[in-house]
Amino acid sequence: MRDVVIIGTGQTPVGELWEKSLRHLAHDAIMPALADAGVERPDALYVGNMLSGQLVGQEHLGALIADFVGLRGIEAMKVEAACGSGAAALRVGLMAVASGMHDVVLVCGVEKMTDTLGDFTTSALATAADQEYEVSQGVSFVALNALLMRRYMYEYKVPKEDFAAFTINAHRNGANNPYAMFRSPITQKAYAQASMIADPINLMDSSPVCDGAACVVLASADLFRSRAKARILASAVATDSLAVHDRRNPLVLDAVAESSHRAYVQAQITPADIHFFEVHDAFSIMAALSLEAAGFAPCGAGVRLASEGEIAIGGRLPIATMGGLKARGHPVGATGIYQVVEAVQQLTGNAGANQVQGCSIGMTQNIGGSGATVITHILGAI
Amino acid sequence: MLKPDREVGIVGYGAYVPRFRLPASEVARVWGDTGGLPIKEKAVAGLDEDTVTMSIEAARNALARAAIAPEEIRAVWVGSESHPYAVKPSSTIVAEAIGAAPHIQAADLEFACKAGSEAIVMGIGLVGSGMGRYVLSIGMDTAQGRPGDALEFTAASGGAAFLLGPGAESLAVYEASLSHVTDTPDFWRRAYAHYPSHGHRFTGEPAYFEHTLSAAKGLMEEMGTQPGDYDYAVFHQPNTKFPQRAAQMLGFKPEQIKAGLLVPVIGNTYAGSSLIGLTAVLDEARPGQRIFMVSFGSGAGSDAFSLRVTDKIAERRDRAPLTKDYIARCKYVDYATYARYRHKLQMK
Questions:
Q1: I need a surface site. Which of A98, A240, B222, B316 has the fewest CB within 10 A?
Q2: Are residues B271 and B230 part of one domain?
Q3: What is the pTM (predicted TM-score) of this model?
């Protein structure tokens, strides 16, 4: 297999982008990525997206977006793996280039979530859970995560206020990211006073519903060595049961463990070699469970990693370095690509005030559902 | 910027707020409170009240202050989103009841919460052109909120009537107005629907703030005025936070909006909301003071007005009940009584 590098990136600001349609968002991420890569016509376009069929009434995004950005005729298709759709599209693009079938491809994650009413969007998101055994009971994703968080607090005797460290870290980092949806730091007090959504998950535990698009250009390392911004050292997907109750232990994300493990093996590194981690902090409990299953903390100690400051820029393992899902935002099908774009910013020394000094290896992890699809990528500096 | 050839002003004004109050805590008791209460309490029309009866009350107050003969009125326009009839004007009933009919213009207006201020702009046009000496413009509502919807905390009953006439006879003169209107689907009620629908967060930035701020900035820019030139500012008030934030974004100080900010104690009276804020300001304004007012209606649009109070205010103010008299006249009801008074229980 051929080595694959990232030669261009692009991203739109994340937010309630009522003035932009789905295709315009994709366009606004793709054009700067192509310009950045110095590529006019890539071989293929892979679109990561979860909800366009439900929230925009539009499927068939591959051809739609390829045509709209002036690439009519190229290979194009949409890849879907719930909230992990972005990284899943990246994985497909990577396979296309690594296999030698293509030399240079575009991978764009795009999501439009704010043109519909909140309860409708929540229902659409719940299609990532098990319809027959979870959703039919009336649970939404917030409710599922609330069950996990409640159990975590009980099993490990962790007080709720300790979870604030994840949110405070994310907002502190988001404040310096011009593309982030939330650019204001928050305090422990603001966390404590946030509106409750599904006890114990409050507004500050939850990533926002938002719009956004991000794009990377992948290329063969041999053919595009001079333009390379970062190397892809590992790419791994693992799956678990959709339903939380079907898992061995709901508080252990087996797919995170398996996906991370496979990635470490591919990159020939251990968790200790990772300089920063773009974690899938859709809810603060997800960040804690991910840190544990990925091998950065023992079970029940993920929250402590946050509350002791290890996750901050300058800490032992900076996470959500540009705001994460909580502060940058979580436009679900685009999130996995935002994580990779931000990792490239870090590895090329372009992360501004949030720069992780001297970093050369970063990990991104994109999760579909409550942990049923977990896609890990490890990136290295050139 | 709109400025009539002949100076037009308010010759008489009148507020009306029904007696009953539903505390927001009572709505929260039944439906839950997820994000704090948007107001303290809202005014609720009684079983025998509707937009027509309340418009008549406010119109009589306006007539009492103006001390003109009702037969001199040349038009009666009622803005509301809760006209009792879908087809058959509220305005003819009001006109007949106060003795203004029959040789007049009469029509009902609908522009969500902006229908009342639109009636005022039309009145300025009719009087300013010389086609009529007096026009009665009313904004009044018995607003509907779907049980359990966020709007149920605030959807209230009440409003105000303004008798417009020649500037020389006025207690406050309209210096100019400017409107800002776009097709923005933030809030609507389809034909035959009992309750309105809304676009949740879409009702804020692209709707309320975009239109309120655009109209306000546009008028001040064309007039060459600044927030500091005004003694009072009144905004459409769907909740307590929105008008406070709009005022702050424009550069008005909290003391400038205090007198006209009634939403915490009467709720959002929709087409009557900014108009009754203006009556509360006129209740205390002194000659020479200037008032800035901006309405907002979903769908969407805003009318901004600049007014100057004249020395006629003093003699006319006490000829009718003050806005605060209506607010003080208050009887609390529980949710069950409210459900009965506002016909929330559909029997068939």
A1: B222
A2: yes
A3: 0.88
